[in-house]
Amino acid sequence: MIYTLTLNPALDYVVEVADFTEGSINRTKNELKYPGGKGINVSRVLKRLGVSSTALGFTGGFTGDYIENVLKQENIDTDFVRVNGDTRINVKIRGGKETEINGASPSISEDDIRSLESRLALLDNEDQLVVAGSLPSMLPPDTYKRLMIRLKEKGIRVYLDTSGEALTKALEASPYFVKPNHLELAELYDVSISSVEEAVQYGKKLLDDFDISHAVISMAGEGAVYLHGDEAYQAKPPERPAVNSVGAGDSLVAGFIAKHLLSNNPDEVLAFAVSAGSATAFSETFCTKEEVVQINKEIKTAVLNE
Ligand SMILES: Nc1ncnc2c1ncn2[C@@H]1O[C@H](COP(=O)(O)OP(=O)(O)O)[C@@H](O)[C@H]1O
Ligand SMILES: O=P(O)(O)OC[C@H]1O[C@](O)(COP(=O)(O)O)[C@@H](O)[C@@H]1O
């Protein structure tokens, strides 16, 4: 079974404003609300791609109820730990440029953590876990690392997608797969990454430094590169105006997992992952399977090995 872990979920509230003006009253042209948080997004896109998963993490209050209800309607299993406060609301403003205001997590108690640990203790070596998104600010930055070490001891594959200090620490637990975007990878090594060659160079370093099997470095409209052992692959999506970048990275992770379950062909796996990311970037909300399959036909791939 695949599990996703979202310690800091959100109700994503996307507002479209014709001409967003700071410091004045703006009226919305269009509004969308949906469950958010990276692991939850991965569960939702996996479902669209025909793969079942169970969503784990912390939810609370009316916003937590909303998330659980939508997942239930979509036939996604959940086993969240209920916390006292309200799950945060993340505001995404589409008005010319995209602006995001991500909220803070409700308080997480020691008991909440223990409840989460006992749910994770039920996983066995047949299971795979996607650990994704930010950590609630009151939790120590090595929280993912601590959880991952125990999971790894049981032979559970961990797919990791987080950023900042949580990423730096979690890498020390050697996940099976990691997906930083090129900016997160650059931050990790305190360098600047603007080309595919640089992404490959630091992506390979990431595999070596942290003993990781698979890494995908996503590069927004440029697609992504995939590093596995000594091999490097690139996939580039068709050029089209992006409508929505929220959840594109999560869709890429879901696409990678869905194809990796079925295929050992790295070229094919990366192409499908990038198709899922780009299908979301090209649509109002999340990609559908039909859109992913269609874009997959237009993806350009290359093997970058010497
Ligand atoms: N402007 C875009 N055009 C086409 N595809 C995009 C665009 N932005 C994102 N994507 C797709 O989504 C994937 C993840 O996007 P990226 O911005 O790199 O990740 P994240 O959302 O994690 O920051 C990319 O690899 C690509 O497939
Ligand atoms: O946990 P964080 O880093 O605050 O991110 C949460 C936000 O990221 C998202 O999961 C989208 O992530 P991506 O755009 O990276 O795919 C939103 O749904 C959510 O609001």
Automatic annotation (TrEMBL):
InterPro entries: 1-PFruKinase, Carboh/pur_kinase_PfkB_CS, PfkB_dom, Ribokinase-like, Tagatose/fructose_Pkinase. Pfam families: PfkB (PF00294). It is an enzyme of class 2 (transferase). It catalyses: beta-D-fructose 1-phosphate + ATP = beta-D-fructose 1,6-bisphosphate + ADP + H(+); D-tagatofuranose 6-phosphate + ATP = D-tagatofuranose 1,6-bisphosphate + ADP + H(+). SUPFAM superfamilies: Ribokinase-like. Pathway: Carbohydrate metabolism; D-tagatose 6-phosphate degradation; D-glyceraldehyde 3-phosphate and glycerone phosphate from D-tagatose 6-phosphate: step 1/2. GO terms for molecular function: 1-phosphofructokinase activity; ATP binding; tagatose-6-phosphate kinase activity. Its EC number is 2.7.1.144. GO terms for biological process: carbohydrate catabolic process; D-tagatose 6-phosphate catabolic process; lactose metabolic process; small molecule metabolic process. PROSITE patterns: PFKB_KINASES_1, PFKB_KINASES_2. Residues 7-283 form the Carbohydrate kinase PfkB domain. Keywords: ATP-binding, Kinase, Lactose metabolism, Nucleotide-binding, Transferase. GO terms for cellular component: cytosol. It comes from the Bacteria. Catalyzes the ATP-dependent phosphorylation of fructose-l-phosphate to fructose-l,6-bisphosphate. Belongs to the carbohydrate kinase PfkB family. LacC subfamily. This is Tagatose-6-phosphate kinase. The lineage of its organism: Bacteria, Bacillati, Bacillota, Bacilli, Bacillales.
